[in-house]
Amino acid sequence: METFYLIDYENVNEEGLKGCENLGSTDHIIIFFTENAKKLDMTKVGDHVKADMKMVKVPTGNQSVDMHIISYLGYLVGKYGVSRCSIVIISKDKDYDNVISYWKEMENIKIEKKSQIGEEAKQQKNKRSNSGANKSAKNTSGKNKENLDQDVMQAVIAMGCQKDVANRTAQIASKLYGKDTFLSAMHNALKNEYSDGVELYKEIKPVLAKYVDNTPIKVDVNSISKKVSAGLKSDAPNGKVSNKADLKVVTAKEKLAKNNEVLKIMSKASFPNDVASSVASIVVKKLGVKNSKQQIYRAILSKYGQESGLNIYNHIKKHI
User: Fold this and answer.
1) Distance between CA 66 and CA 50 in Å, rounded?
2) What are the phi and psi torsion angles at 2 (to 5°)?
3) Average confidence (pLDDT) over 129-143
4) Helices marked H in the chain — which ranges?
5) pLDDT tens digits, residue range 90-122?
6) How far is residue 248's CA from residue 53's CA, in Å, rounded to a whole number?
7) If DSSP codes are grouped into helix, strand and coil, which group holds residue 17?
8) For residue 213, what pLDDT band results from cuts at 50, 70 and 90?
9) What is the Cα–Cα distance from 43 to 271, expressed in whole angstroms?
10) C-alpha span between 128 and 61 (Å, rounded)
11) pLDDT-based confidence at 36, cuts 50/70/90?
């Protein structure tokens, strides 16, 4: 994984570069400065030859360096995505905090802010120096976590949820991965995060369960869809799980197409985005279930009331 250190030089000066001698060949130092910046004495920077280093001079102006760093951050996210890079902003400026929170929340980007390269670079050097079985175990664990992250995102999106929900769910799974109580911790975390978090947990549990023993796997979305369909509960008073004979297997592609279709219809009818998203999720969850139209109708009316629910259902009933 590539690591990029974006240096707000006017804010931290040479102090921010302390520790760069510990960086390796997959690290990149990018120093942003204006003509008003203090001259950089390369003799004080240290031995940075193993890391790539670039100087970026930007126009003088209010928050000019900040804006260029944020712009470059967006470029890196677009080029490398979630799993191929991590980003460290070297600055004491709190104005970066909201941007960092945004990228973590929306795209699960590995990004943080520090006042100097220092201690983290030393830790990175120590990690690179580890070898043998211990290093192999760490690499395997890291690979498992990356697989888990991708599989959870893929599964949640296949269920018809929005991308931000998929990102957040994957972020929670990655954080809790490795705990002895991984499944119960995920159950509680999703329950606290979303109003329908328990249902979300039930649907992705088959994916999560395969990571309890830390075994890396490749998950087939169509296989997930079959398991989810087979596990959907009926609206019967006894609450028993429907018989497989009452279910029709719906592929992930069909679910995604139906989700987008409902969203388009709701948007055209000027319903709020959160309502459109929720209704699309209800429709996708009931696809393939016996008497699905009736169940969708009842679920919508239960959530939005008789008048509003009926209005919503009338807009989508021809398309479910």
Assistant:
1) 27
2) -85, 140
3) 51
4) 9-12, 64-80, 97-107, 118-129, 132-158, 163-176, 182-193, 197-209, 221-231, 252-268, 273-286, 292-304, 306-316
5) 999 998 999 988 888 877 888 999 999 876 665
6) 57
7) helix
8) low
9) 62
10) 40
11) confident
According to the model, what pLDDT value does residue 172 have?
A: 92
Cα distance from N-terminal residue to C-terminal residue, the chain: 44
Dihedral angle, C-alpha 101, 32, 41, 44, nearest 10 °: 20
Q: pTM score, two decimals? A: 0.41
Q: Which two tokens stand for residue 297?
A: 């109708």
Retrieve residue 52's tokens: 């790539």
Here the tokens at position 19 are 């520790």
| pLDDT of res. 48 | 57
Average pLDDT over residues 252-276: 87
Contact 87, 72 (CB under 8 A): no
Residue with tokens 């169509």: 222
**What's at 290, amino acid-wise?**
K
> Which of 153-170 are b and which e, b meaning 16 or more Cβ less than 10 Å from the residue's Cβ?
bbbbbbbbbbeebbbbbb
